[in-house]
Amino acid sequence: MAEPAGTPWLVATGALTNVALLFTSYPEVAEHIRGLSIMGGAVGNGFTNAPLGKARGEKSERCGNWTRWAEFNIYCDPEAAKSVLSNPVVVPKTTLIPLDVTHQVLATEEVRRKLLHGPSHINIKEDPYKDLFDESARKAEKDRLRWLAGERENLLIRDLLNDLLGFFAQTYHDNLGITAGPPLHDPLAVAVILSDIGADDLAFDDGGGERWIVDVVTEGLHSDAEKEHGQLGRTMVSKTSGPGVRIPRALNVGPFWEVVEKCLQRAEVALLKRPVKSG
Fold first, then answer.
1. Which of 46, 107, 197, 204 to pair with 258, CA 20 to 30 A apart?
2. What is the pLDDT of residues 181-193, one digit of tens each?
């Protein structure tokens, strides 16, 4: 609340329990924020052309990733999600990033290889996202090139990311039959803010201003048995001509991966500032 009204963004990348509680306990926050970006939900039914996958034994594509109908974050607390996505003050400020969008951003083998090895030259001065990085990034370029030449110890951050993406690549292959690579979910909810503050290359396509009424199924039990959980946590959408939730159908995937690369470079800059251990 210390920030000027109409400027702060709230990003939710998990269950919406705390977000719902925040708006219920402090309704002035809903008025104060500029926007709410949520990673959660799944529309299905051809909302986009993203592969949503099929679990073993399923004959048709599902829309959820936790149950056939529900995405995990919404499924965890559907009542909270229903509260947030029906709040009349919050709804016009909300961007929902469902699986239909995140499954368009797959960490393919080529993407993982590029992120693992990084570029051989960092030219942040000509980078359109240079304002995201401080001057120390330029000063670290020589250290970066020395590291690439094997003169510094290996920076493990790229190895760590590669291992995580590799693990999830296998998980999505085995559990949902998605073979091209694992989707990235939460970073896209953050990318919404970058798009809002002027990173035009990251523009999300909302169909020329489509807005949606989002309802959340709250009937059912949290259970492994489909007959008990039913469609609990499913996000049902209908188009509206009035105020509604923004649900993009697509984004520029290439510039998104470029931002991820720049973030890795920034993390490397921080690591390169640390003394190299000897012996």
1. 46
2. 999 999 999 999 9
